[in-house]
Amino acid sequence: MSLPRRVAAIALLTLLVVTLGYLFNRTQAIDIDAQNRVMLNLRELEKLDAGWNVNILRSHVGLNPDYDPLVAPLPRMHQLTTEVASALAMTRGPEALATYGQLVSALRQKEELVEQFKSQNAVLRNSLMYIPPAIAGLKTELTGIEAALVPARTVLALDAALNTLLTDLLRYNMVPDPALGTAIERQIVLVESLRSGFSPTMGAAIEAMAAHARAIVRYRELENRLERQIADTGTGELLGRLATQFDRAFGQVQIERQRWRGYLFAYSGMLLFLVVLFARRLRRSYLIINQVNRDLKRANETLELRVAERTAALEAKSEQLEKLAMYDMLTGLINYGQFTQLLDRAMLRAARRNTNVVVMFIDLDGFKAVNDTWGHAAGNVVLQEVARRVQDKLRKEDVLARLGGDEFVILLEEVRDREGARRVAELALEAICGIREAQGHPITISASIGISSANGQEGRARGAQALLADADQAMYQAKQDGKNGIAISGHARWSQRLADPVLDRIL
What we know:
The chain has 507 residues and is an alpha+beta fold.
């Protein structure tokens, strides 16, 4: 073979090999681990953001004893947003970058709003805790020496004004209404106008009470406005949009990879055809291409195996995260989020059937003493035992959930009347009081149980949150009545249905 032909053959062979290597490299230009990692990070961010929203709501209704749950997820969320930012180049477009910028801005705004919410909620909670005992103290003074120093008409007027003010403040805290706020201000002015006839000490107490009453009116409206602003940040929607954009980009990369695989297989076929035609002259090239094809097959099998393994791992992780989002890991009971979904469905069924839905809010009495005396391990055993014993007293279709700490809630359907509900509550109370030891330590616990009921379409219209709030308030009434007891909400509604032998036997 002449030198020019030999050079041309070598150049052609080099070109064929380089082209083959380029096609092979394009089929391998996918980092499956990085794709899985960024999608897991986005899902974890969505879970943390949803949990953040739940804790804001719990702080609003006073279920969180402090504000630690509002700041606990922030370091992890900051870390995850930074990791997502490092993966934006994988999306190959400006849309995800713009959405990420909006998300970071929304999270920063939400964090600032939550800080404002914490400070305002602290003032509001302090005033709400101050008002009832303050008014009770003033009413006590009105029955003592103060009543003998001023005209009876003034005493009666102040007593009536204090009663009305307390009632309106409690109503306003539940459902803020501008008209009710104006009425409260008039009551405050009336109470302040009556203080002149009393002693300076009494007048100072009235002035302090009035200041806290005005704080409730002001900060409840400000807090509701902040919560609306927090909801308007739309972090959940932005996270979902960003996840969709990443998923779409990864899908496009997979399509591109399949296209290059097609090119590679077509090119390999062409090379094999050339090898058949020029077997004697290109024997060395045939051996190289044959080896490349074997390597490509092994690489494809390895890639498919890794994709299957990563997909299975991702599904297992997703199933684990979904379980964590639905169940309390200590007791095995469903958590607050899953309970509210079941409650919504129960109220929808009750609306169709015109039946009752009963919620029982349970708060353990003496649980803190168990933790303080015998430690949290003993406290955990008590919580598990409470869950087991109370569950044993319920029907299969009844629902028992743990809201957190030492708070539990029961959901009952098809309960005929308040007596049936009370019997279930008594069984639960008896089961809880029967716990006498934990890890070999003697203990004494009881429970305060608040009951509320919603009936038919009327209950559906009021909503699940109102029903939970009524049961919560009834539980606090049981606490105030001396604990270890049951209180039924004044807002409970019942309907009398035909006797059901099965329900009678259970209830």
